[in-house]
Design goal:
Length: about 80
């Protein structure tokens, strides 16, 4: 693993941490907002929770794609 992959992983982690932090802060300081039902009679807490799960999967796929591209690039360069 190279420093580019590590740096990109930390950026993705910070992005997810911000999303999750927003979820926690909304629950802690504005629970009535989380009780609202924006669509299909399902409250915002459930929608936000599903969005967090989806975001984690997407970020994992993006990270895997970036790391694979880095490894392929390193393989074509040959040994150093």
């Amino acid at each position: 693993m190279n420093s580019r992959s590590t740096r990109f992983g930390l950026i993705l982690f910070a992005l997810y941490l911000a999303l999750y932090g927003g979820f926690v802060l909304l629950n802690a300081f504005s629970p009535e907002t989380m009780e609202s039902t924006p669509a299909a009679g399902v409250n915002l807490a459930i929608w936000y929770g599903f969005a967090l799960i989806l975001a984690a999967l997407i970020l994992a796929l993006v990270y895997g794609w970036v790391c694979r591209a880095d490894n392929e690039e390193a393989d074509t360069e040959g040994p150093k």
